[in-house]
Automatic annotation (TrEMBL):
Protein name, per record: Phosphotransferase family enzyme
Keyword 4Fe-4S: no
Organism: Kribbella kalugense
UniProt keyword terms in alphabetical order: Transferase
Taxonomic lineage: Bacteria, Bacillati, Actinomycetota, Actinomycetes, Propionibacteriales
An example Gene Ontology molecular-function term: transferase activity
Ranges of residues in domain Aminoglycoside phosphotransferase: 148-329
Length: 382
């Protein structure tokens, strides 16, 4: 615990639910009551691995925004404190001292002095909730939510939350609250509405995709990029090298579907859809990249129960045929079952290459797991 960068002590251990390391609302709620001042979590310092991302004993660097109540913290000097607060070139801006405070003050300068609740913080983003609005900071290697949303809303102003403000220099977004609940178990109308409207926006954005400020993960580059990734991952090379040799043919089959390179949401699972029963919006645009649109339907497939997958694929295919007569969207699904995991292997390695060492635990196994998934789908033996 610090006030600014000054160490003030350690809080007694406590338990929180749901126990996801990045979800810190319950952490700061407990510490606010304990210390009598507002607190923010800057970053994860250490986690005893239970399930990656959840459970175990977690140590955070927490900043108190005022002097905490006396007699509560263990003020015994912490030998590793200088190391904890030492500058780290890959540290996220919100993981620095005063980082969340600056984000909160920027948002309050626009919407007024509303209560701020830190909901999430980790190596990819920091998320602050206000009554009626959300402030979000994203990493240097991710997309800026507000920037992407502004492009999308030019074609469909109901598909994503309204943008209240953007600081591109800081990679901050201030977005209107999307009413309703997350659609983890979407009904048929939600699938039909969200998937069809997103396809229409993707089709409209295709001509300008390469001008957008978003990373690129292109099928045409996969073979070279996966070949470069292999030596960096703890994986037997025999099967993966066979797969790399097959990639030009698999990419050719994908391209034969006739779909354009365009903007891809990147994390198109139904938990990133919000619905109030009437309006449905897509949230969390930080993983957006320029790539193949079948990546998104594959991501959705992996999150839906088996009995809902065919319906989603049919809706997606019909939407693309409306937007691009003559294309054969369903032809893209089989090659994408292999190319999708390879794309995510590269995305996760990009995360690892650009986040500080203490937070790599979130993603350390992801590139290898994705390569194994691709091998399984391609029928290659390790």
């Amino acid at each position: 615990m610090s006030v600014g960068a000054r160490y003030v002590g350690r809080a007694p251990a406590f338990e929180v639910e749901p126990g996801w390391w990045s979800e810190v609302e319950a952490v700061t709620r407990h510490l606010d009551r304990l210390l009598g001042v507002r607190t923010v979590v800057l970053r994860l310092v250490h986690a005893d691995e239970a399930v990656i991302g959840r459970g175990g004993r977690v140590v955070y660097h927490v900043e108190a925004l005022d002097e905490p109540r006396s007699g509560v913290l263990d003020e015994t000097p912490l030998p590793e404190w200088d190391e904890i607060v030492a500058e780290q070139p890959l540290r996220a801006t919100w993981a620095e001292v005063d980082g969340p405070r600056r984000l909160i003050e920027w948002a309050q300068g626009i919407i007024g002095p509303r209560d701020a609740v830190q909901v999430k913080t980790w190596n990819l983003s920091c998320l602050i909730r206000f009554p009626g609005a959300w402030a979000k900071a994203t990493s240097r290697f991710c997309s800026i939510d507000a920037d992407i949303i502004e492009h999308i809303r030019r074609y469909d102003d109901t598909l994503a939350p309204a943008v209240l403000a953007t600081s591109r220099e800081n990679r901050w977004s201030l977005l209107a609250h999307a009413p309703g609940t997350d659609c983890w178990e979407p009904d048929r109308p939600s699938v039909e509405s969200v998937v069809s409207r997103w396809v229409a926006a993707q089709a409209a954005l295709a001509d300008e995709a390469f001008a957008l400020d978003a990373p690129r993960l292109l099928p045409s580059a996969l073979a070279d990029e996966i070949a470069a990734l292999i030596p960096r991952v703890d994986l037997s090379e025999r099967g993966i090298l066979e797969l790399v040799d097959r990639l030009p043919a698999i990419v050719g089959e994908l391209e034969a579907a006739g779909l354009p390179i365009t903007l891809v949401h990147g994390d198109f699972h139904p938990g990133n859809w919000r619905s109030d029963g009437t309006q449905r919006v897509i949230v969390d645009w930080a993983d957006t990249f320029v790539g193949h649109p079948a990546t998104d339907i594959r991501r959705l497939h992996d999150f839906l129960p088996p009995e809902k997958r065919d319906h989603a694929a049919e809706v997606w295919s019909a939407a693309w045929r409306r937007e691009l007569p003559g294309c054969d969207p369903l032809r893209a699904l089989q090659p994408m079952s292999v190319l999708g995991p390879l794309t995510y292997a590269l995305m996760y390695q990009r995360f690892l290459d650009n986040i500080e060492p203490d937070e790599r635990i979130y993603h350390q196994d992801d590139p290898g797991n994705c390569l194994r998934s691709a091998l399984d789908m391609a029928g290659c033996a390790l």
